[in-house]
Amino acid sequence: MSALPNIRVLDMTRVFAGPWAAQMLGDFGADVVKVEQPGTGDDVRRMGFRARDAEGREVGATSSFLAMNRNKRSIALDIATPEGQARLRALAAKADVFLENFRAGGLAKYGLDYAALSAVNPRLVYCSITGFGQDGPYAPLPGYDPIFQAMSGLISVTGQPDGTPGAGPVLAGYSLSDINAGFYAAIAILAALHHRDTVSGRGQHIDLALLDAQIAAHSHIAMNWLVSGRMPVRAGAASQINTPWQAFETADRPLMVAIGNDRQFAQFCRVLGLPDMPGDPRFATNRQRMAHKAEMLPLLQQALRARKAREWMDALNAVGVASGPINDFGAVAEDPQVRHRGVFTQVEGNGAPIIANPIRFSETPPRYTRPAPDLGEHTEEVLRDWLGEGP
Predict the structure, then answer these.
(1) pLDDT in tens, 308-360
(2) Average pLDDT, the chain
(3) Hey, which residues does 32 pair with through a beta bridge?
(4) β-pair partners for 248
(5) Which of 227, 262, 221 is nearest to 240 (CA)?
(6) Residue 238: inside a domain, yes or no?
(7) How does pLDDT run across 351-377, given as a tens digit for each residue?
(8) Which candidate in 178, 252, 276, 280 is catalytic?
(9) Are 21 and 186 in contact (CB under 8 A)?
(10) Residue 178 appears among annotated catalytic residues
(11) Owning domain of residue 117
């Protein structure tokens, strides 16, 4: 049993944001059909790393394509031809969801825009994912993740503070604005399906912009500025609003510590052998600690260098203070909690490695029944299943 039985999705998106949203729907049980250009397909088929065989030759799909395209079938259709357009309109007439990330208005010339397809299928939920949205002065402009990290303000608050070694803005370590937009798209599609099926009986158009989504995802950091007028700053591995809430050096490796309230700070200081610090007026509350970080943090750092990270973690966990190591992915994969939760898993019956969907339903758990498809692998199969074509 799946969470989205009998939901058909046409995925005309490429790269990350749209394919990520469509993969989410596939994990939940929707029949997701990825529509690709014959001969070339999705751009990320040529981005990322590949596995190597025993002779060292690259084999299989790229890591980027694998990350975004499990639980899908691929068909190859040339929408520049009348035949391809007619096929896609016929498929859209049978679909519940249509995702696309062409430039604003780019599908209208093919008769595949929302107005055209909703006339064929009024129940269709049509989601357009673009860099800047369907309107406004930037609507026709191209863009990729780093552009939206930059323009949204994210890079301005990521990196080491001014006046410290390595100071300067830094790109987040993965395509954050793409992934955030993909999450928003999946949520919006599910809401639109619910509205269709319980309220209106009709689908609707979803206009989702990566720039809008990344600004919204700043949440409390952007709100700090809105309500106070104080510009957020780069804080390295530290918090903008809480302290101590950062990485510290220990006797062997860095340790991230997050203190959420004054009681936890008192416990933290007791474990560090600094029992008098919470009574110091400079450090008694978070507001005071933020004002006196320059005096407080060196004292904490000096104490933390006395023991190894694992020893501190055990001692802090015992009194309810959150801490954790800064892992690389090898350490992540070996972490006992990650192993217990099965975060790194495989496609059923295929053995292809995947990263599990983190959502745990009690009745309709995600299943991983299809590896990322080859280009056009399922064209005949889908045309038969959806349109009744072929033998």
Answers:
(1) 999 999 999 999 999 999 999 999 999 999 999 999 999 998 888 999 999 99
(2) 95
(3) 9, 72
(4) 255
(5) 221
(6) no
(7) 889 999 999 999 999 999 999 999 999
(8) 178
(9) yes
(10) yes
(11) 8-217+339-387
